[in-house]
Specification:
Shape: elongated
Structural class: alpha/beta
Helix content: 25-40%
Radius of gyration: 22 Å
CATH architecture of the largest domain: 3-Layer(aba) Sandwich
Number of strands: 19
Distance between the termini: 5 Å
Number of helices: 14
Strand content: 15-25%
Strand order of the largest sheet: 3-2-1-10-11-12-13
CATH topology of the largest domain: Rossmann fold
Length: about 425
């Protein structure tokens, strides 16, 4: 079986969980004898291609002589997007929209012209323009590549998936890693993003949601038939790296690792920190990440008078994450709406006890994690305090948690995904 897969990022150059999930899933599919050609806007050449073939969209020559491309390339519209926009992030005004039909900058293509598109591969002000161009590349690949099924990750690639399906006639699976309701909250939805998400789900032959929580949102908020939506929980990539447990300070360390955005609940982490420090001043709190709420978080930390107990590291990746986990006594994920949440699995893999919100998809698969409502800072503070002050409790969560996470393998997730592919192919009359 061969899959033409569309994703916006792939390790080692990632902005969050989306790229990590794509990497784990493609490795798992390879172990299940599924070949994947992974299309990304801009490859750097240092991606791990032992289990997947990377197609750099920036290198694909699009031939507009073919009729199926002319309808897409005659008039490609561009919309300005806030440069901080990333797939999981919601901001009240991250779109500065230009009327899509009647204004903006248009790029005219001449029939018979061959050309390549240059992608930044990031989340730039021209993101919507790159999404449209990426769809043109998808149409070309759908004509020239040999594959059995199309798989598109998150809203950024849904247009590409739809076009590839239209050109090839092959079935489409879309993967929901986060919805606009998660990123922005119900009262601040961006209609353009919501529309793209719904269009992709409606066009798909099957919709994979990363949790039951996300599945319910897809069914209830987007009107997608329940029988079409399947839960496919994430996993964590096994590693041979040994996380060294050491730190340069005598105090206990409590860590938040993630984007500093509305969705991730950093405000609740700060309020919880104050509650803990009222009981025990011998604790330091680390906020590792960056995002649009950073300024407000720093101001609130100063306002509460706990700046001397708070550390801001900025965005971490790779070995720096392992170093941070090696220093941590507790990991906290207070997300307001978390479709899944891979970072707690990474913390547990490093033998760090975790406290997570009940409003997260990962809570559905974990037993050895303390789960509280994101808004209940008193309960969250009590959980942290308990782990810090009862060594037997901390030891139990560390050892049992690692054992639990070691059994959450991408290979098993990929095996389930393969059966989804097979069902779709059989239903549509295609054979792999």
């Amino acid at each position: 079986m061969k899959v033409l897969m569309f994703g916006w990022e792939f390790p080692p150059h990632i902005a969050g969980g989306l790229g990590t999930a794509c990497y784990g899933l493609t490795k798992g599919l390879a172990k299940n004898f599924v070949e994947v050609a992974f299309v990304m806007p801009k490859a750097s050449g240092d991606e791990d291609q032992r289990a997947v073939r990377i197609i750099n969209a920036s290198d694909v020559e699009v031939d507009t002589r073919y009729a199926h491309l002319q309808s897409f390339s005659d008039r490609v519209s561009f919309m300005e997007v806030n440069s901080q926009m990333v797939p999981y992030v919601g901001m009240n005004d991250y779109y500065q929209l230009v009327n899509q039909l009647n204004s903006g900058v248009f790029e005219e293509t001449v029939p018979g012209e061959k050309r390549k598109y240059s992608f930044s591969g990031t989340y730039t002000h021209n993101l919507m323009g790159e999404i449209e161009q990426y769809a043109l590349v998808a149409a070309e690949l759908a004509r020239t590549e040999h594959f059995d099924i199309i798989h598109a990750h998150d809203w950024l690639t849904y247009k590409a998936g739809i076009v590839a399906k239209r050109v090839s006639g092959k079935p489409l699976v879309v993967h929901i890693h986060a919805t606009e309701f998660d990123r922005s909250g119900e009262n601040n939805l961006n209609d353009i993003v919501y529309g793209i998400e719904r269009e992709g789900m409606m066009a798909a032959d099957r919709v994979c949601a990363v949790s039951d929580l996300t599945r319910r949102i897809v069914i209830e908020k987007y009107g997608i038939p329940a029988e079409k939506v399947v839960t496919l929980h994430n996993a964590v990539e096994p590693t041979d790296r040994i996380v060294v447990r050491q730190k340069a300070v005598k105090e206990k360390i409590v860590t938040f690792l993630g984007r500093v955005t509305y969705q991730k609940g950093p405000e609740y982490f700060v309020e919880t920190a104050q509650k803990v420090l009222e009981k025990d001043d011998n604790v330091r709190f680390v906020l590792a990440g960056d995002g649009d709420r950073m300024t407000k978080i720093i101001e609130r930390v100063a306002e509460l008078g706990i700046s001397d107990k708070f550390h801001f590291t900025g965005f971490l990746k790779g070995d720096d994450i392992d170093t941070m986990f090696g220093m941590s006594d507790v990991y906290v994920m207070p997300s307001i709406s978390e479709p899944f949440g891979i970072s707690p699995l990474e913390a547990m893999r490093a033998s760090v006890p975790v406290v997570i919100s009940k409003q997260s998809g990962v809570s559905e698969v974990l037993q050895y994690a303390i789960k509280v409502d994101f808004w209940d800072v008193n309960a969250m503070a009590d959980a942290i305090y308990g782990i810090l002050h009862y060594p037997a409790l901390a030891k139990m969560f560390a050892s049992k948690g690692k054992e639990e996470v070691d059994n959450l393998k991408w290979e098993k997730v990929a095996a389930k995904l393969k059966t989804i592919y097979e069902d779709v192919l059989n239903y549509s009359g295609h054979e792999a």
